[in-house]
Specification:
Layout (H helix, E strand, L loop, with lengths): L5 E7 L23 H13 L4 E5 L13 H6 L12 H6 L5 E7 L5 H14 L4 E6 L4 H6 L8 H21 L6 E4 L4 E3 L7 E4 L4 E4 L12 E4 L4 H10 L2 E4 L4 H17 L8 E10 L3 H12 L4 H12 L21 H5 L12 H8 L7 E4 L1 H15 L3 E5 L5 H16 L12 H6 L18
Parallel strand pairs: 1-2, 1-13, 2-3, 3-4, 4-9, 9-10, 10-11, 11-12, 11-13
Antiparallel strand pairs: 5-6, 7-8
Length: 454
């Protein structure tokens, strides 16, 4: 039997996510991102296609590295305006029964005490379908918006994140015992105080003295995603993540990252195959190969290569407006997304990229590859990536909304299902149980969070 793929829809609460300029396409509806119907319709489509989750990206701050100004980002709507992703989840959960929700939240700018309550609340309201994509941020503009002079150095952000995780684990796993909530109407006792414990933490970066404000949710700790493929990010993932989102333009870039992540997980005492690894892909498909290629060329006529360089400048910390389009992009140490610049420089020594090539590549699908073809050709490509890189699945980005996702659901999913490479029905239980099987509603005993349980 072929390996079954895992699929997330990669989205953002904004008009532009990974394909700048395509919001102007006549069939694109992404400019309606600020309406509930946009999100509830998407959720229904994804559940019809048996997607595991909608993976909601987010960014604090604005992309102002390109030209040293936010003007290009504002003009091109490059991930601005951008709404809060968490507030979308209850609406989508209300029209679905199985679809999961992976939400990006930057821990660098939010105290763990209110954040833990917010995630527990969503886990309750979704019936255990919430996941948290753990990120530390990468934009100087976000730090300044939060009142800081500049953002903390890259590796120090992960030191802070390690302690942050210890704090939220204590709140989610250790504050309320199983059985603490009685709901005893006759005895007039809702909670047994003896089974609720105060969390006291006095660390390097965080101080806390309090009881978690929510009763235990179905998963307690949300399913843990992590998006960071730098060396420090991989070490963090090996300890904390259940699902890892990585990104790169080719199999040559992705395969070594996957191997390293699994080796690090094994060294941390975890089953390396328990780490579910996703990479980004944009799929453009139609009933025939020629129709798919024609659709791709049509899409290309609406892209914004300047918008692509605005994104790349923000991700890498390199102001591409200062370079010639024919300059070869070189690696340099920055406090942005280290892996973003590595993907186009040191990660594949056999391939060099000019600024022009990066702009053309990133104009559809951002840093990830674009697959164009008939449903059978797309299925072949996805399965080839799984076989050659050892990934578990894909975060599928869109080019045109909702066309990209409805095309995939209607055309590619049936092919994968016929091949036995994709599920035909959802497994029961929480999001974690859907990925790991019955009895896995909570994190396993081998996970770092388990030591905080009562």
């Amino acid at each position: 039997m072929p390996k079954q793929l895992r699929l997330n829809a990669f989205q953002m609460n904004s008009a532009v996510h990974q394909s700048p300029g395509l919001w102007t396409h006549p069939r694109d509806q992404a400019a309606s991102y600020n309406t509930l119907a946009y999100w509830t319709d998407l959720a229904r489509t994804l559940e019809r296609g048996k997607f595991d989750a909608v993976f909601l990206a987010d960014v604090l701050g604005i992309y102002d590295v390109y030209g040293g100004s936010p003007d290009a980002a504002l003009t091109q709507a490059v991930q601005v305006p951008v709404g809060d992703p968490l507030l979308l989840v209850p609406a989508m959960a209300g029209v679905t029964e199985n679809l999961g929700f992976g939400v990006t939240c930057t821990l660098s700018y939010e105290h763990p005490y209110p954040f833990a309550r917010r995630m527990s609340t969503l886990d309750h309201l979704t019936g255990g379908r919430i996941g948290w994509n753990i990120v530390t941020g990468y934009l100087e503009s976000a730090a300044k918006g939060m009142g800081l002079t500049r953002q903390t150095a890259h590796d120090t952000r992960y030191d802070i994140a390690d302690e942050y995780m210890d704090v939220v684990y204590q709140l989610w796993e250790g504050s309320w015992e199983d059985g603490a909530v009685l709901r005893d109407k006759v005895g007039r006792r809702f909670t047994d105080p003896a089974r609720v414990h105060r969390i006291q933490h006095d660390g390097t970066y965080f101080k806390l003295d309090g009881i978690h404000l929510c009763e235990p949710s179905p998963q307690r700790t949300p399913l843990l995603y992590q998006a960071g493929a730098s060396a420090r990010g991989r070490a963090f993932a090996a300890k904390h993540a259940e699902c890892v989102f990585i990104n790169g333009p080719s199999q040559q870039v992705i395969a070594p990252i996957v191997a390293d992540l699994r080796a690090r997980a094994a060294a941390a005492g975890r089953n390396p195959q328990d780490l579910k690894i996703f990479t980004m892909m944009t799929v453009i498909t139609a009933p025939t190969s020629q129709q798919a290629r024609d659709k791709y060329e049509e899409y290309r006529s609406y892209v914004s290569e300047e918008g692509a360089l605005v994104l790349m400048s923000g991700w890498t910390g390199v102001d591409f407006s200062r370079l010639s389009l024919d300059d070869i992009v070189q690696y340099e140490k920055r406090d942005a997304q280290t892996s973003a610049l590595e993907a186009f420089t040191t990660a594949d020594p056999g391939r060099t990229w000019t600024v022009r090539e990066i702009a053309q590549h990133a104009a559809i699908g951002g840093r990830g590859p674009v697959t164009v073809g008939s449903p059978e050709e797309v299925a072949d490509t996805l399965q080839d990536w799984v076989a050659k890189t050892d990934i578990d699945g894909f975060n599928l980005a869109y080019a045109v909304m909702p066309e990209t996702f409805s095309d995939f659901v209607d055309l590619v999913v049936p092919v994968l299902q016929r091949r036995g490479a994709f599920k035909t029905r959802y497994a029961p239980g929480t999001l974690r149980e859907k990925l790991y099987g019955p009895g896995h509603a909570r994190l396993g005993a081998e996970h770092a969070a388990a030591k905080f349980r009562r």
